[in-house]
Task: structure prediction
Amino acid sequence: MTKQSGYKIEFWTTPNNAQQTYSCNFKDTPFWQALDRLCRDANLVLQHNYGDERIVLQSQDGYTPHVQYAGAFRFVPTNFQMVRNVDFGLVGAGSAPQRNENLTLSFLVFSEPRIPLLGMGEVRLTAAYDNDKNSMLVPVNNNVNDGIFLGGGFGGGRFISRYGNGNRSYMQQSQFTLHRASERATKVKLIRGVIPVTLLVEQKPVIVADNILKAKGKKNSVGATTFHFEDVTAQPNKQYQIKLGVTQDNKDNPNDWTWMNTLFQRIELQDEKGNKFQVYGTRWDNSSANNVQMTLTYGAPPNTKTGPPSKFIFQEWRTLQHLVYFEFKDLPLP
Result:
């Protein structure tokens, strides 16, 4: 699977199971479906990632039920939460305490690592009913264009975020509310809906400085982003500190600050052979809508040999706004 997909797949397992062999036959099978089949056979569970591009599997008995797929996307319902409330308020002739109930389904959305998620908008449901055929839809704003690309929020509005919430990940969480029409119903027979997502569809590394140790005082631009290297110093503990200002020409949407959040995943420091340095400290001194002052401290990763720092690299990102249709079936109700 690593060879065909190009994805980094790691697994943590017990020594007794490390050399087990499993046989499967796949033909034109989407990646997530093939991976889940192998995980179920080998008692492995997909772990939530932390913003990198690795897929990490861990040995564990059991499997994740109710998983649904939509091409390159994987949907996993995690839990129902039901809250009942009685508001005593004011009572009088013909009045009684007001009762209400809130039923919320939380779920995870996975994308293949080649198209990481940057953000998700508000879910719009097109169908939801229980096993007694009662509708579970609640009144919502059905205009799919409203609030479509908030960076993971659930409210309306026309604010458009170019980079979602600014963090690249192949897993993000969302939720929506349902109405429970019947106490006798034991499960949700069908939920069908659509969720808008912001995807990172291309990453292009661009060398901003080819000799970072001599970059003090220099400026360089990558598209609308300009880097000004104010100071570069070697520390006594074999670490390197880079002080720089980063400016974004964002005239079309000056209130979109998400470009700053992306910097942590787009900036790299490498030696001449391409070995990456690890960030050991960051400091933001001043920031505005289109400018930020940063101090970055780099050092060699543990147990890794690197040469002197050489290339300061910035990843150009190209994003895509996309609608993903999903459905869940036969979910137990609380």
